[in-house]
Write a structure and sequence with these properties.
Elements (H helix, E strand, L loop, with lengths): L9 E3 L7 H6 L4 E4 L15 H12 L3 E5 L4 H8 L6 E2 L8 H10 L6 E5 L2 H10 L3 E5 L8 H19 L10
Parallel strand pairs: 1-6, 2-3, 2-5, 3-4, 5-6
């Protein structure tokens, strides 16, 4: 059933609920993460101290992180370069090329990789199409850019459908 491609493997309130210990128990060695509204608000230029601690905990536990964003190079580089996190911009998610490139760059297997993002139509769909474990997070900000607002309307319908069919087990979904 194609609709299951929009269903994440897991749902959390924020990336801070994702611990390196839990990932290691699942055999995860690498994270592909979205940037805007996943790690920080879409209009925040820099990483927060709490996010820096989270990224450092991943690094200390030998879990690689690559940011894969549909945003432009200027935005993604300005965020990623100061904190030393590799990135792919203009990813064109949910297409698979950027996901495959990130896996290749990190020199890991699909089974060792998790995708973290705030959107069903880009992050979850792209990760699932590439047979990766997907984790949906609640968007960091309550506001979005124009195209993302359109996606959110579609996502709300999908989430209501999943809930009605008992396909999701978490409570309040956005």
């Amino acid at each position: 059933m194609l609709i299951k491609l929009f269903l994440p493997n897991e749902f959390v309130d924020s990336v801070f609920e994702i611990s390196p210990q839990k990932l290691k128990e699942q055999g995860i060695k690498a994270i592909i993460t979205d940037l805007d509204n996943t790690l920080v608000e879409w209009d925040r230029k820099n990483a927060t101290p709490r996010l820096l601690e989270w990224l450092e905990s991943m690094q200390k536990n030998n879990i690689l992180v690559t940011i894969v964003s549909n945003n432009n190079q200027l935005r993604v580089a300005a965020f990623s370069d100061p904190i030393g996190v590799p990135f792919i911009y203009h990813a064109r998610k949910p297409r698979g090329k950027a996901f495959r490139q990130a896996i290749k760059d990190m020199n890991v297997k699909k089974e060792e990789t998790v995708v973290i993002g705030d959107q069903l139509l880009t992050d979850v769909l792209g990760g699932n199409r590439n047979k990766l474990y997907t984790i949906l997070v609640v968007p960091v900000a309550k506001t979005d850019g124009f195209f993302t607002r359109i996606n959110r309307r579609i996502e709300r319908r999908l989430l209501k459908f999943f809930k009605r069919k008992n396909m999701i087990q978490w409570e309040d979904t956005k």
